[in-house]
Amino acid sequence: MYNYKLIIAYDGRRYAGWQIQPNATTIQAVVADAIQIITREKVKLIGSSRTDSEVHSLGQTANFRCSTLLDLLTTQRSLNGLLPSDIRIVDFSQVELSFHSQYDTKGKVYHYRLCCHPVLLPFDKGFAYHLRQPLNLEDMQQGASSFIGTHDFSSFANNANRGNAAQNPVRTLSRIDLVEENNGIIRLEFEGTGFLYKMVRNIVGTLIEIGKGKLSPTDIPHIIDARDRRQAPATAPGYGLWLIKVDY
């Protein structure tokens, strides 16, 4: 038996997220079907992160086991030949049988892109949330600092979470940075040991309200302490979110 690790980049706009679902096209299903064609085995493809509908990736990590010894470069090329152009295998390697792309994660990096310019450029459409107004970035960064550290993030997690993560809302964030790109794009960079269901998008929605002046940075500790999703603002759209990297 052999174990293979993939790093996958994708444009999530036309997919119902990563995880296989009935009556929906997902990244996991499309990649697993391509692997089955090459290996002639039905494989279980395990992903590091269950990204939602329209969410993008530069660094989704997955693994599968099969009984076939595969040539790494040939298999990577063959997979990319079979996959649609909005999904690409950027790295393909053999790993120890014990490697598990979900359970072995040490941390993840996500980016969320906001456009604060009145005009969204065509190549950012579907890849950044267009707000059409300036935001107070200083207040947003101040508010972001309250999320750093280990907290109960119940106020920023949807109850539809899956698996044991729903029962343990405590997570540790090491970094939230606001970076100004060109053309009015603001990139929010999140780094932490793990994230709850829609946690990043819920935090972004809250920081946007701070940037608009509708919330104060000093409101964040109170919202965290409430441990109540109803106390935090609406979720930011999925298409602004990018899974950048998974650490092991």
TrEMBL record:
Q: Give the Pseudouridine synthase I TruA alpha/beta domain ranges.
A: 7-104, 144-248
Fetch the SUPFAM superfamilies from UniProt: Pseudouridine synthase
Q: What class of enzyme is it?
A: isomerase
Superkingdom of source: Bacteria
The Swiss-Prot or TrEMBL record annotates one GO molecular function as: tRNA pseudouridine(38-40) synthase activity
Where do the catalytic residues lie? 52 (nucleophile)
Specify the protein name.
tRNA pseudouridine synthase A
Organism, as annotated: Simkania negevensis
Lineage of origin: Bacteria, Pseudomonadati, Chlamydiota, Chlamydiia, Parachlamydiales
